[in-house]
């Protein structure tokens, strides 16, 4: 997990600074919290599990960074069509067993934005004709696929 998290931020580099960041399937919120520590302007966390939701809120408060974040307890599938704001960077780490559909996710990305999906390296990355893959990393059973808008 630590190696994968390091890889995400190594690839993103300075793009984090000042970014409007979205963490889908947030779990513990570790990626979004690290994004804040690396200079992200704001992070929105989407998590369906109440225990994880509470953990993220507690950690943000303990670290004194709750004012730079919003935590929503909801399904990603409900958030996608309801979202009205573009994000510079989106990170998603869904359950590996689930079939992930990322159709419509291009609407979440700001112009020049980056979508990062963590997924099983045994499966091909999810496809979206409006997004193109610009980087792919593999770490054992885990893969990271980085997307941008296909038109840009």
From TrEMBL:
<protein>
    <recommendedName>
        <fullName>Methyltransferase</fullName>
    </recommendedName>
</protein>
<dbReference type="InterPro" id="IPR004398">
    <property type="entry name" value="RNA_MeTrfase_RsmD"/>
</dbReference>
<keyword id="KW-0808">Transferase</keyword>
<dbReference type="Pfam" id="PF03602">
    <property type="entry name" value="Cons_hypoth95"/>
</dbReference>
<keyword id="KW-0489">Methyltransferase</keyword>
<dbReference type="GO" id="GO:0031167">
    <property type="term" value="P:rRNA methylation"/>
</dbReference>
<dbReference type="GO" id="GO:0008168">
    <property type="term" value="F:methyltransferase activity"/>
</dbReference>
<dbReference type="InterPro" id="IPR029063">
    <property type="entry name" value="SAM-dependent_MTases_sf"/>
</dbReference>
